[in-house]
């Protein structure tokens, strides 16, 4: 015996309203995607996709921080490079003047003029050794004050103010740091062994009418120190440049992956929304016919 299920008007009404709500919900989802431009507006839209989006967003924040670190490190290294280049040129000029001072035919007045010029070079070198970037000395590590004192410094003439082993570093990738400062004492020497004290001695020799050419080898040693630091600084600049290129590539990759997960295909969403609107209008028409009968219709 076949049992025929009884379909009441109440059942039809509930089923019709449920379908209308489903259609309206789909339209709401599509409209939200179209207005926001993303597929995932709440975690419930795609739980696994949400986890990927959060991970990629965190990755992009890290890359942005690495990029800022690398840019700051690059600025430090460029500042050091400029200071070292200027120091090298100044010391080369001092060497030329020292060679001239060794000319036995040069008179006392000319030697005094050379001495004054060398003293000017000493002051310029001291200024370069105390070069700062954003108010911080680039040759004194983490010390906040100048890298070197002057000739009348309380701690001794041309004393180095930096802290041994305290370096300035920037993290440019996961577990990758680059030193962005330089040790002034290794570049310019310190105290009596500094290039500043050497130029003072050469100046004093010239003022006394003597021959300063015996100190040429000492000048060459200081020039070698500067060139060595220039080479090391250039290597660190290359490391930062490579890190910046890698950060840029990883940022593009991360954004592409994020877009593939959450960005909507706008043309497809518009098409789906139009189709859903047609379906919704049809459902409304069907519901109007189903829900139209009243008690009088049944009594007839």
Automatic annotation (TrEMBL):
GO terms for cellular component: bacterial-type flagellum hook. Residues 9-142 form the Flagellin N-terminal domain. It comes from the Bacteria. GO terms for biological process: bacterial-type flagellum-dependent cell motility. The keyword tRNA processing does not apply. Gene3D superfamilies: f41 fragment of flagellin, N-terminal domain. One of its GO terms (molecular function) is structural molecule activity. Pfam families: Flagellin_N (PF00669). Keywords: Cell projection, Cilium, Flagellum. NCBIfam families: flagell_flgL. This is Flagellar hook-associated protein 3. It comes from Cellulomonas triticagri. The gene is flgL.
